[in-house]
Amino acid sequence: YTPIDDLGLEEGIRKLMETAGQRRTAFAASLVPLLVDDDPLVRAEASRALRELREPSAVPALERLLGHPTSTIRAMAVTALGECGTPEVVPRIAPLIEDPESIVRWATLIALRQLGGRSTTSVIAKALRDPEAKLRSHAAECLGGLGEKQVIPALVAILEDPDDDVRSSAVWALKRLGDASAAPAVALRLTDTNSRVRNYALQ
Protein backbone atom coordinates (compact mmCIF):
# COMPACT_ATOMS: atom_id res chain seq x y z
CA TYR A 1 0.00 0.00 0.00
CA THR A 2 1.22 3.51 -0.90
CA PRO A 3 -0.36 6.99 -0.90
CA ILE A 4 -0.88 6.54 -4.64
CA ASP A 5 -3.67 4.06 -3.92
CA ASP A 6 -5.80 6.78 -2.28
CA LEU A 7 -4.54 10.02 -3.80
CA GLY A 8 -3.99 9.25 -7.47
CA LEU A 9 -0.72 9.14 -9.37
CA GLU A 10 0.43 12.79 -9.33
CA GLU A 11 -0.57 13.58 -5.76
CA GLY A 12 0.65 10.20 -4.51
CA ILE A 13 4.11 10.67 -6.03
CA ARG A 14 4.30 14.18 -4.52
CA LYS A 15 3.45 12.77 -1.11
CA LEU A 16 6.03 10.00 -1.41
CA MET A 17 8.70 12.53 -2.39
CA GLU A 18 7.76 14.73 0.56
CA THR A 19 8.04 11.77 2.94
CA ALA A 20 11.37 10.76 1.43
CA GLY A 21 12.66 14.31 1.85
CA GLN A 22 11.70 14.34 5.51
CA ARG A 23 13.51 11.07 6.04
CA ARG A 24 16.63 12.40 4.28
CA THR A 25 16.62 15.46 6.51
CA ALA A 26 16.29 13.34 9.64
CA PHE A 27 19.01 10.96 8.46
CA ALA A 28 21.38 13.84 7.73
CA ALA A 29 20.70 15.33 11.15
CA SER A 30 21.62 12.02 12.78
CA LEU A 31 24.89 11.80 10.84
CA VAL A 32 26.36 15.19 11.72
CA PRO A 33 27.04 14.38 15.43
CA LEU A 34 28.94 11.28 14.29
CA LEU A 35 31.56 13.52 12.68
CA VAL A 36 32.94 14.18 16.17
CA ASP A 37 32.77 10.56 17.36
CA ASP A 38 35.82 9.23 19.20
CA ASP A 39 36.19 6.45 16.63
CA PRO A 40 37.87 7.73 13.43
CA LEU A 41 36.17 4.97 11.40
CA VAL A 42 32.76 6.20 12.54
CA ARG A 43 33.73 9.76 11.61
CA ALA A 44 34.89 8.63 8.17
CA GLU A 45 31.69 6.68 7.47
CA ALA A 46 29.50 9.57 8.61
CA SER A 47 31.42 11.94 6.35
CA ARG A 48 31.09 9.58 3.40
CA ALA A 49 27.34 9.19 3.97
CA LEU A 50 26.84 12.95 4.16
CA ARG A 51 28.78 13.48 0.94
CA GLU A 52 26.60 10.93 -0.84
CA LEU A 53 23.38 12.24 0.71
CA ARG A 54 24.01 15.87 -0.34
CA GLU A 55 21.33 17.12 2.03
CA PRO A 56 21.24 20.95 2.25
CA SER A 57 19.57 20.86 5.66
CA ALA A 58 22.87 19.61 7.13
CA VAL A 59 24.72 22.80 6.14
CA PRO A 60 24.25 24.82 9.39
CA ALA A 61 25.45 21.92 11.58
CA LEU A 62 28.43 21.31 9.27
CA GLU A 63 29.37 24.99 9.35
CA ARG A 64 29.57 24.84 13.14
CA LEU A 65 32.25 22.16 12.83
CA LEU A 66 34.55 24.32 10.69
CA GLY A 67 36.18 25.70 13.81
CA HIS A 68 36.65 22.33 15.52
CA PRO A 69 40.10 21.91 17.10
CA THR A 70 40.63 18.53 15.37
CA SER A 71 41.94 19.00 11.83
CA THR A 72 40.39 15.81 10.44
CA ILE A 73 36.96 16.91 11.64
CA ARG A 74 37.40 20.34 10.04
CA ALA A 75 38.43 18.61 6.82
CA MET A 76 35.44 16.24 6.86
CA ALA A 77 33.06 19.12 7.53
CA VAL A 78 34.37 21.24 4.66
CA THR A 79 34.36 18.22 2.33
CA ALA A 80 30.72 17.52 3.13
CA LEU A 81 29.88 21.18 2.59
CA GLY A 82 31.44 20.97 -0.84
CA GLU A 83 28.97 18.22 -1.70
CA CYS A 84 25.76 19.39 -0.02
CA GLY A 85 26.28 23.14 0.14
CA THR A 86 25.71 25.97 -2.32
CA PRO A 87 27.91 28.93 -3.29
CA GLU A 88 26.48 30.74 -0.25
CA VAL A 89 28.77 28.66 2.00
CA VAL A 90 31.93 29.95 0.28
CA PRO A 91 32.50 32.84 2.75
CA ARG A 92 32.27 30.36 5.64
CA ILE A 93 34.80 27.88 4.26
CA ALA A 94 37.10 30.46 2.65
CA PRO A 95 39.34 31.02 5.72
CA LEU A 96 40.21 27.31 5.77
CA ILE A 97 42.21 27.69 2.55
CA GLU A 98 44.91 29.07 4.87
CA ASP A 99 44.40 26.53 7.66
CA PRO A 100 47.66 25.47 9.37
CA GLU A 101 46.95 21.82 8.49
CA SER A 102 47.50 20.58 4.95
CA ILE A 103 44.59 18.10 5.10
CA VAL A 104 42.16 20.97 5.74
CA ARG A 105 43.60 23.16 2.98
CA TRP A 106 43.29 20.29 0.50
CA ALA A 107 39.70 19.60 1.55
CA THR A 108 38.86 23.29 1.20
CA LEU A 109 40.38 23.53 -2.27
CA ILE A 110 38.44 20.49 -3.46
CA ALA A 111 35.21 21.79 -1.91
CA LEU A 112 35.66 25.15 -3.62
CA ARG A 113 36.25 23.44 -6.94
CA GLN A 114 33.04 21.45 -6.51
CA LEU A 115 30.99 24.47 -5.49
CA GLY A 116 32.25 26.49 -8.44
CA GLY A 117 31.07 29.96 -9.26
CA ARG A 118 32.79 33.31 -9.45
CA SER A 119 32.90 33.69 -5.67
CA THR A 120 35.37 30.81 -5.34
CA THR A 121 37.98 32.26 -7.69
CA SER A 122 39.70 34.74 -5.38
CA VAL A 123 39.77 32.18 -2.57
CA ILE A 124 41.35 29.49 -4.73
CA ALA A 125 43.91 32.06 -5.93
CA LYS A 126 45.19 32.31 -2.35
CA ALA A 127 46.23 28.66 -2.60
CA LEU A 128 48.75 29.62 -5.30
CA ARG A 129 50.91 30.80 -2.38
CA ASP A 130 50.47 27.59 -0.36
CA PRO A 131 53.68 26.12 1.13
CA GLU A 132 52.85 22.74 -0.46
CA ALA A 133 53.80 22.55 -4.14
CA LYS A 134 51.19 19.95 -5.09
CA LEU A 135 48.45 22.11 -3.67
CA ARG A 136 49.74 25.16 -5.57
CA SER A 137 49.74 23.10 -8.74
CA HIS A 138 46.19 21.85 -8.21
CA ALA A 139 44.98 25.36 -7.42
CA ALA A 140 46.38 26.59 -10.75
CA GLU A 141 44.55 23.81 -12.59
CA CYS A 142 41.32 24.67 -10.78
CA LEU A 143 41.64 28.30 -11.81
CA GLY A 144 42.23 27.34 -15.40
CA GLY A 145 39.06 25.27 -15.34
CA LEU A 146 36.94 28.03 -13.80
CA GLY A 147 37.61 30.35 -16.73
CA GLU A 148 37.75 33.62 -14.78
CA LYS A 149 40.35 35.88 -16.39
CA GLN A 150 40.91 38.10 -13.38
CA VAL A 151 43.27 35.42 -12.01
CA ILE A 152 45.72 35.82 -14.91
CA PRO A 153 48.16 38.06 -12.97
CA ALA A 154 48.27 35.55 -10.11
CA LEU A 155 48.96 32.70 -12.53
CA VAL A 156 51.65 34.68 -14.34
CA ALA A 157 53.33 35.30 -10.99
CA ILE A 158 53.81 31.58 -10.35
CA LEU A 159 55.44 30.95 -13.72
CA GLU A 160 58.67 31.51 -11.78
CA ASP A 161 57.76 28.94 -9.12
CA PRO A 162 60.69 26.65 -8.25
CA ASP A 163 58.50 23.54 -8.66
CA ASP A 164 58.19 22.08 -12.17
CA ASP A 165 54.61 20.88 -11.67
CA VAL A 166 53.47 24.29 -10.48
CA ARG A 167 54.96 26.02 -13.51
CA SER A 168 53.47 23.49 -15.91
CA SER A 169 50.03 23.83 -14.29
CA ALA A 170 50.29 27.61 -14.50
CA VAL A 171 51.14 27.49 -18.21
CA TRP A 172 48.31 25.01 -18.84
CA ALA A 173 45.84 27.22 -16.98
CA LEU A 174 46.92 30.37 -18.84
CA LYS A 175 46.65 28.58 -22.16
CA ARG A 176 43.16 27.38 -21.23
CA LEU A 177 42.07 30.88 -20.28
CA GLY A 178 43.26 32.01 -23.70
CA ASP A 179 43.93 35.66 -22.97
CA ALA A 180 46.48 37.40 -25.18
CA SER A 181 47.78 39.47 -22.27
CA ALA A 182 49.46 36.36 -20.86
CA ALA A 183 51.17 35.38 -24.12
CA PRO A 184 54.52 37.15 -23.48
CA ALA A 185 54.88 35.55 -20.06
CA VAL A 186 53.99 32.11 -21.44
CA ALA A 187 56.47 32.55 -24.30
CA LEU A 188 59.28 32.92 -21.80
CA ARG A 189 58.54 29.35 -20.66
CA LEU A 190 59.63 28.04 -24.07
CA THR A 191 63.13 27.93 -22.63
CA ASP A 192 62.09 26.43 -19.30
CA THR A 193 64.36 23.77 -17.83
CA ASN A 194 61.42 21.31 -17.67
CA SER A 195 60.26 19.66 -20.90
CA ARG A 196 56.59 19.46 -19.87
CA VAL A 197 56.52 23.18 -19.17
CA ARG A 198 58.08 23.83 -22.59
CA ASN A 199 55.54 21.54 -24.28
CA TYR A 200 52.58 23.31 -22.67
CA ALA A 201 54.03 26.66 -23.71
CA LEU A 202 54.29 25.43 -27.30
CA GLN A 203 50.70 24.26 -27.55
From the structure above, extract its key features.
0% strand; 65% helix; mainly alpha; 203 residues; elongated
Average pLDDT level = 88
What's the helical proportion of residues? Answer: 55-70%
Multimeric status of the protein: single chain
Unreliable residue runs: none
E-strand count: 0
Structural class: mainly alpha
Please outline the major beta sheet.
none
The CA-CA distance between the termini, in Å, is 63 Å
Rg from Cα = 21 Å
Number of helical stretches of at least 4 residues = 13
Question: Which term fits the overall shape?
Answer: elongated
What string gives the helices and strands in order? Answer: HHHHHHHHHHHHH
Architecture blueprint of SSEs:
Blueprint: H1 4-7, H2 9-31, H3 40-53, H4 59-64, H5 71-84, H6 90-93, H7 102-115, H8 121-126, H9 133-146, H10 152-157, H11 164-177, H12 183-187, H13 195-202
Short recap of the structure:
By secondary structure, this protein is mainly α. About 65% of the residues lie in helices and about 0% in strands. It is elongated.
Describe this entry's structure for a reader.
The protein is mostly helical. Helices cover 65% and strands 0% of the residues.
